[in-house]
Design brief:
The structure is a homodimer. Chain A is of the alpha/beta class. Chain A has a single domain, classed as Response regulator (Rossmann fold, 3-Layer(aba) Sandwich). Chain A is built from five helices and five strands. In chain A, strands 2-1-3-4-5 form a five-stranded parallel sheet, with helices on both faces. In chain A, helix 1 links the parallel strand 1 and strand 2. In chain A, helix 1 crosses helix 5. The interface between A and B is medium-sized, with 32 and 32 residues. Chains A, B: Pfam families: Response_reg (PF00072). Chains A, B: Keywords: Phosphoprotein. Chains A, B: This is Response regulator.
Chain lengths: 158, 158
């Protein structure tokens, strides 16, 4: 396996995770749990659609590192807003359009889950209700996307 | 959380994982590692494109349970065959078209990884080279897709 395809621990310094979340309290939870699990990563918080698109297009234009993962809240504050943003991100040029998008939502509604997959999310995670469960979810997220899976263009993230 | 959305252990009995792999020795490895990790699941092996499509359309037509995950080898034996099958599966009616497709390949070629994501895989895993590493990969796969993520239409699999 080429080192360029699997991220050695030393290369992760400065890699980012983009968190799109309109609720500041939820963000505080997510930030704390990310810091406990993705220790070498910098979480980037954007609270709305406009700043999310701005951040991602800046990555392209001014050569910022692409986020390794995108964590997307569905209800921003309506689910239609989350879905619209999802479709916008998926329509951006590769490799941005291919980034794993993990939807985090308090909703366990069947339609929310199905329609989110139809519109291009990679996975749907129902938001945990306590801090230890957040940490456990993010630990699994890390073991899966960092230690097990190979993503395209890994040189863009690290 | 509704029980229907998260698979309780008791509901997994009889759930399946579809493995599309043209190499019998690789299949033997995969089968053994799946049995060690996805203990309640039945791995279904198909060695070629035709049987894969037949199996999936039978799921629709005669009401077989959908596989919970699809593990797809890329070189069948050419990568173009794997990609064509991938696109065929993604064009099937939902929820089959939305199933997580995990590509397993010995190739760590950057183009193989990028083009597989472009054509719709969910994740790309470079095949481990020894049995303990297979078990570790599948253990992570299970913790992620079964214990952390919610999939659409879970009643179809269990």
């Amino acid at each position: 396996m080429h080192q360029s395809e699997k991220a050695g621990k030393g290369h992760r310094k400065g890699a980012t995770i983009l968190v799109i979340e309109d609720n500041k309290d939820q963000w505080a939870f997510i930030q704390r749990a990310l810091e406990a699990t993705f220790a070498d990563f910098k979480p980037i918080w954007v609270p709305n659609v406009q700043q999310a698109i701005e951040y991602l297009t800046d990555c392209q234009k001014i050569g910022l590192r692409l986020p390794y993962l995108i964590l997307l809240d569905l209800y921003l504050p309506e689910r239609e807003v989350g879905w619209q943003l999802l479709e916008q991100i998926r329509s951006l040029d590769d490799p941005i359009g291919q980034l794993p998008i993990i939807l985090l939502s308090s909703s366990d509604d069947k339609d929310d889950i199905t329609h989110s997959y139809e519109r291009g999310i990679t996975s749907y995670i129902i938001k945990p209700t306590n801090y230890p469960a957040w940490v456990e979810s993010f630990q699994t997220l890390k073991e899966y996307w960092l230690d097990t899976v190979s993503l395209p263009g890994s040189s863009s993230y690290f």
